[in-house]
Amino acid sequence: MTGGQALARQLHREGIRVIFGLPGVQLYHALDGLHGEEEIRFINTRHEQATTYMADGYARAGGDIGTALVVPGPGLQNASAGIGTAYATSSPVLVLAGQVEKELIGVDRGVLHEVNDQLDIVKPVTKWARRVLEADEIPTAVHEAFQQLKTGRPRPVEIEIPPETLAKQTDTQLLGPAEIERPGGDPKKVEQAVEVLAASSKPLIWAGGGAVSSGTSHILAQLSEFLQAPVLLTPEGKGALSERHDMCLGAARLPPEFIAAHDVVLAVGTRLSTPGMLSNQRVIQVDIDPAEIGRNYTNTLGVTGDARLTLELMLELLKGRHEPKPKRLAEIVALKTELFDSTKTVEPLGAFLRAIRSAMPDDGILVPGMTQVGYYARRFFPAYQPRTYLTSSYFGNLGFAYPTALGAKVACPEKAVVAVSGDGGFLFNSQELATAVRHKIGTVVIVFNDNAYGNVLRDQKTRFDGRTYGSNLHNPDFVLLAKAYGATGIRVEDEDANKLEAVLIEAIDRDEPTLIEVPVGEMPYPY
Question: Is the Cβ–Cβ distance between 418 and 366 less than 8 Å?
Fold first, then answer.
């Protein structure tokens, strides 16, 4: 077989069934190899940025590994925004990149798509990267990539292969899929954590993205009930525990005095990027990544291991040795009522989010962009199931919402998937409407159109005596744009949230590529 065929066949053995890619000259033999793998679906995008965004959405929504294929140089550079987002969100994404010819790597001659040195581009936003120069090494490299993706903290990895390596005939041996058993925490450390929790007067649980990816929902609910510990979620952790659960506080901004009243904080799958907030508490941190233990707090008892397995042992020991904590339900329900009082929400943002939540099924997936309504969704869009709320985490990049939602829909075609975007962010990747139509991806995108980079415009006005610079926009007719691509375009003519809800219900029911434009005025500060 050729190197390209070896690549395709090993990917198939590792379980890959979808690849998001954009073809190019250095990838011809990789594409030819994929042509022979009928069980692998190839979704060609209109920009390399979308390949990695879609792979990330696919991975986080469906729980599998997302795969992107791009040409070297500008292709990989274009894809780096999505790779960085996957890195920030701890998402398992495999990036396959071409290279220039072997003898020209590092020569800096200026050949097509050359970057010297390409591995340096991905180093800051990948867990592992490898250049493969020989065709018979391709299966081993792919297998190693999957071991990296499945062990420890899930983050992107990259493999790059020159064109003649993909073209070369080889007798290489294909390998079985990488099978990894994730470790639980050290039992002695877990025992120490259990004793600290049992002795605490008021424990608090803080759950992040690692609680979602490890599948802790069931055990997290039991643990919070036993400890009578309210569960605070990071935006990345939304869905780790249903926000209908009595003990769940969502991603609320808690009063400082409420946090201060809790003597022990159990942090699950989060780096606790809030230095200073917990300086007076004992912190127990459960994380698969040892580098995160104590990163922000020195007063930390760290337990390195898979969150679900670690919490299962923790609960088993607690139940075997200690009595449940006294009930705090009335206190927590009263706090939730105060935190999420709809009469105190910022409008019209709160009304829009209530309409979107009402229109979507419990298992519907929301991808909130970096826009006014998206910011507000962190607190006021309740998530009821894991993997149903996908953020860009600290990367915070405009343009990620729509292509990420497309990838989520590919992973979960039976679920409603809705992206929330501003007009500025949507035009970063509006061309992927063509991808949605071609590949029949029924994602709905709601574009809140204020003809500006609205957050910037408002901040400039309020902080710089009304002076604005570079934040006003000229937009196309979004409804006509959607129709030009063959998608459905609908405009909700006013800020009537009830009308938005009705239109969204219909769009979800049609299950076709749909854009809903909501013209809005200048939006209030969402915090």
Answer: yes
pLDDT, mean of each 10-residue run, the chain (527 residues): 97 98 97 96 98 98 98 97 98 97 91 92 96 97 97 96 97 93 94 96 96 96 97 96 95 88 95 78 94 88 96 96 92 90 89 97 98 94 98 95 98 98 97 98 97 94 95 97 98 87 97 97 86
Taking alpha carbons only, the member of 164, 86, 161 closest to residue 129 is 161
Give domain 342-519's CATH number out of 3.10.450.50, 3.30.450.20, 3.40.50.970, 3.40.50.300.
Answer: 3.40.50.970
How is domain 187-339 classified at the CATH fold level?
Rossmann fold (3.40.50)
Separation CA 393–CA 277 (nearest Å): 20
The amino acid sitting at 500 is: L
Residue 259 in tokens: 């946090």
Q: Which two structure tokens, joined as six digits, stand for 55?
A: 């792979």
CA distances (Å), 494 to each of 426, 487, 499, in order?
A: 20, 22, 8
Distances in Å between the Cα of 107 and the Cα atoms of 117, 129, 131, 134, 484 are 10, 20, 16, 19, 45
